[in-house]
Amino acid sequence: MAALYSTSSCFCGSLGSYPVHKSVKLGHGKVRDSGFYFPHRFQCATPKLHVQAKALSVDGLPEIMDSSLVVCFGEMLIDFVPTISGLSLAEAPAFKKAPGGAPANVAVGIARLGGSSAFIGKVGEDEFGYMLADILKENNVNNEGMRFDPGARTALAFVTLRSDGEREFMFYRNPSADMLLQENELDFDLITKATIFHYGSISLITEPCKSAHIAAAKVAKDAGVVLSYDPNLRLPLWPSAESARKGILSIWDTADIIKVSEEEISFLTQGEDPYDDAVVRKLFHLNLKLLLVTEGADGCRYYTQEFSGKVKGLKVEAVDTTGAGDAFVAGTLSQLASDLSLIQDEDRLRNALKFSNVCGALTVTERGAIPALPTREAVVNALLKTVA
């Protein structure tokens, strides 16, 4: 079964060096089909770009606009993935190095789909750090917001691939460079140029990165940039389950778009049923434009102020679920960055989410994330086959 949640990726790339840069208001309404209803009106910061319908391409999806920049903030690291699935870390005979980190995967995914993206984060001033910067550049992601720490190493994670394609993690970051990003190292000009600012929760775990994260999001919000949040729960990185829950929810009400998995809903609601709309309603705040719940191979659910529903996924044979959730997010944000009005039109939103579901499904058919992240052409071809 394919699953739409992940942070890791796999890539074979050359080592190199890269220079260090210093430095709708929506109304209330009734929900169709599901009986879900949000009775309150809400307002959000006025987007920097006007929310209006864009011309559709021949495949019926919004044309990707070069100016529709998505800036992704957070961690980028090296995953070591076993060359043979179904073994424990101790049993694995060999590991393949691969770039990982959900925000970076999303940035690459957007660029692969023809969108415009940038990554802001910190890596070590080491060979792995330079490799990661080069990988972003090679995938047409703006990496000017990357910083290099001379005193800390690039984070490492050993990832176990079980026989069903699911993963388990062992992290080495004590502290790693991504945890040491400071507010005065942020590229605020890049952030304010964005249409969407995307981030996770791992950057909230420790200082000084936590303060840098909060400052970056505030600058984006004040500039009218849409805030996109994928909590991407990784419990082993937090001091405790309660600190993880508290940390993830501490910035919940500032986001305009949130993507969560079924497991994350259960975690955040302390064991409640993630398939119950009343449970999901507890996570919907007044300023939220769009809440997405991924359900692996079964697709996703969507909730706005005016409507909610479900979009079926594409059934595939899962080889490695690494990067599937990030591919889903990339598919969604690449379309919303070009046309935020999709959120107000249920039929068009459903079409956009069909595209996102296919992005996730195609990614699980190959090992790793970055090599498996699909192009726009591949997604459109897969969509055409489903209706043929």
From TrEMBL:
It catalyses: D-fructose + ATP = D-fructose 6-phosphate + ADP + H(+). It comes from the Eukaryota. Residues 69-375 form the Carbohydrate kinase PfkB domain. It is an enzyme of class 2 (transferase). PROSITE patterns: PFKB_KINASES_1. Keywords: ATP-binding, Carbohydrate metabolism, Kinase, Nucleotide-binding, Transferase. Gene3D superfamilies: 3.40.1190.20. One of its GO terms (molecular function) is ATP binding. InterPro entries: Carboh/pur_kinase_PfkB_CS, PfkB_Carbo_kinase, PfkB_dom, Ribo/fructo_kinase, Ribokinase-like. The keyword Transferase applies. One of its GO terms (biological process) is fructose metabolic process. GO terms for cellular component: chloroplast stroma; cytosol. Pathway: Glycan biosynthesis; starch biosynthesis. It holds the Pfam family PfkB. Its EC number is 2.7.1.4. Belongs to the carbohydrate kinase PfkB family. May play an important role in maintaining the flux of carbon towards starch formation. This is fructokinase. The lineage of its organism: Eukaryota, Viridiplantae, Streptophyta, Embryophyta, Tracheophyta. The gene is LOC107953913.
